[in-house]
Design goal:
With 189 residues, this protein is an alpha+beta fold. The chain has helices spanning 5-14, 18-27, 73-81, 146-152, 163-188, and strands at 32-38, 60-63, 66-69, 92-100, 107-113, 119-126, 141-145.
């Protein structure tokens, strides 16, 4: 269930900066380490696609002496659909190479700056939420900033207006899944 407007406002009043988020994670015993900052063109051209038999990139790439897996669906989403929040228009401007303190392998997170200059992470969102039957498929993903993603919750935006559009999307998602099953079947032989 999505958050109410009042809940969202209260939440964002408490969580005004990334620094607060990091302090909260630290209090819970979860801390992140930032290893480096990279421009978009230093990361996106190296995204690896399993389903693309002609993909010349490798699954791993070295950054800051660390081996980074480059086949993340989030990286693929940013590469295929762009780095701008679909809802508010916040633009991702750099990738941060980060890892949780206890983790061995780092990963990239995409960040932009909100109008007040605060760092905001961009995320992979399910257009049709998984809780409503949405699948993990590229045609069911969209780019949202963390604020818009939290506000959206597990709802489908403009539900009444776009029912025919959502029905088309659902059919596309089901068709994509069938296509994926076919590709995986070829690999298994």
């Amino acid at each position: 269930m999505g958050a109410t407007r009042a809940e969202t406002i209260r939440y964002w009043e408490r969580v005004k900066t990334r620094k607060f988020n990091e302090e909260l994670l630290n209090r819970r015993g979860i801390s992140k380490e930032r290893l480096g900052i990279y421009k978009l063109h230093e990361v996106l051209p190296f995204v690896f696609y399993y389903e693309d038999f002609n993909c010349k990139n490798t699954e791993k790439k070295e950054y800051e002496g660390h081996s980074v897996w480059m086949h993340s669906q989030s990286y693929q989403l940013f590469d295929k659909k762009g780095t701008v929040c679909k809802n508010c228009g916040l633009e991702g401007i750099y990738f941060a190479l980060e890892r949780f303190k206890d983790a061995k392998k780092p990963h990239f997170n995409l960040y932009g700056k909100d109008p007040k200059g605060n760092e905001t992470m961009l995320t992979k969102d399910h257009i049709i939420p998984k809780s409503k039957g949405g699948l993990n498929a590229m045609c069911n993903y969209q780019v949202l900033c963390e604020k818009c993603n939290f506000t959206k919750g597990d709802t489908m935006r403009n539900r009444e207006k776009n029912q025919s559009e959502q029905k088309t999307l659902l059919e596309k998602v089901r068709g994509y899944t069938t296509k994926c099953d076919h590709i995986i079947g070829r690999w298994m032989k």
